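Recall the central idea of this unit: under ordinary conditions, the amino acid sequence of a chain determines the structure it adopts. In this exercise we apply that idea directly, starting from the sequence alone.
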Amino acid sequence: MTFSISRRGLAGIAAGVSAATGFIVRSAQADTLDETLKNNLLRVGINPNSPPFSSRDSAGAWVGFDIDIANILAKELKIEKVEFVPTNTDQRVPFLVANTIDVSLGGLTRNSERAKLIEYTHPLHSEVMGVLTTDKVKIASYSELNDAKYTLADVRGSWTIDWIKENLPKAKVEVVDNNADVVRTVAQGRADAIVEMLDFFTAFTKDHTDVNWQVLPNKIDIGWDCLGVQKGNYALRDVFNIALYKLHSSGVIVEQWKKSFGTEPLEKVPAQPYF
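Accordingly, the structure predicted from this sequence is:
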């Protein structure tokens, strides 16, 4: 007797194993672009607790920048149904590899290790690493924070904590649970500054209007966040790239960013007609 498991069923099993063990499993066969269009469904991986990228509103509906962008992209592809799949940071690549999702959002930073496992589109948005502080801290460069008199706030589990320990080892670090709490920690005087991807934190400064916030002019680093699709799924990647060129050229992505974050991107992504 023989048994068969559907491709998507196998993908779900693979993703579960990958998430549980922390290892990348062998890639399940991706849906082709034709199959995605035929199914009239786009499965989108999002970070479930990362406002203003994505979160649930009081009615339980998904809202945020990634949600808006996913719906716009689906419309560009003339796909009527969008399924949002919660994927924590460490699940994004495994879920693509296992064909549990068609595309990953959620601040997927482009790097060479991930590029061995998935395909990246042209960048959707940037992430600028810099210093957010207040007028009480008199510094001109992030390097001046390498002093025991300064406390830096950051999110538990963030890679930037290791960066701070390596580059600013004398500074103290106050670790909290989310981006809003990081900004609140500085606003309340329990920390002096934030050394992080500032695009994801400046939106919360509006909750503390009594604080004179300052962003140091010099950027530490710029990361590029892309859409991720399964390895070898060039047709879907290329369609997304064409759509992204249109959305960058028309200013739609910047407008969506301003709607969600309350400010323009610190570093805009240039429209790219070649890929």
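Residues 87 and 188 are 32 Å apart (CA to CA).
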